[in-house]
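pinging the channel bc i need a second pair of eyes. not urgent but kinda urgent?? the chain im working w is below, pasted from the shared doc
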Amino acid sequence: MTFSIEPPPDESFTVKPVKSNKNLRNGVAIGAAAVAILLVGYAIGAAGDEESAVTTAASTSTTSKPRTTTSEAERTTTTRLRPTTTTTIPGPDSECTQAFEQANRSSGSQFSFGSESDPVFRTIQVCTEDQWNRIQVQFPIDRTLADLCDSRMGIPATACGFADAAREARQIQEREQLLSSCGNVDVDAVVKNPDAFTGTCMLVYAEITQYDAATGTCQFRARWDSRAQRSWYSYEGDNAYFTSGDGASMCPALEGIDNDDVVKLWAVGEGSFSYDTQIGGNTTVPKFRVERAEIVEKN
């Protein structure tokens, strides 16, 4: 409630209550607005202080960052790099090329051909067939691949795969042609002059008379004829010497054949053969190389 004091006209006064709702509402509104203004101002001021504090802190952090010491800088700028090692991976043709280069440098030198010491021979050991054919164009040598492969005396060689296969196929074909040419022969003519039938393929029947440790695995003696006989004394050729394969240990054609067997043989004449007898003498007989054998009678 608001009171108003009015001076009396006669110097005395009386206090009277004044009702003024409109003025009251206006005053309250003004007061609330003033308070709101004060609060907003306070908030703005606080925000400003906080921003100022953050800026100051950042500035302080920036300006107070320790400088890199000279020793650290020196360590950074003088750090040594580890030396790098470059590894050269040899190309697939390098070993073959080196073999050809060595063979060319050694041209005209005397070597035992077919041995490990022969530089030319080494080219077929370390090169494939494709490499040999390509690289020999750059480093020509005086021998063909076929010559080297045929003359290497059985030593393994990488470049000779195709050449070996071709040679084997050729040998099989030649052998079949040879066997197809085998036929009956005049036994007496062979006994009289074995050398005249060298290289001739003959179809003969033989009864083995000696096939033991003395003859070896791939050789035997036998009575022989152009046809099978019922008894040993009926054979026209009373003695001949037969060999097969390498003549020593590799003779697959004689597999399963033993002493006293009667066999059918496809055999090539190799002239005459002389040997010492058990009684101290010496005899000469026809010699044959057996290409194929079949057992007629097992004794």
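so Helices lie at 21-63, 70-77, 94-105, 119-126, 129-138, 145-150, 161-180, 187-192. and Residues 94-162 form one domain. — does that match what u expected or am i reading it wrong
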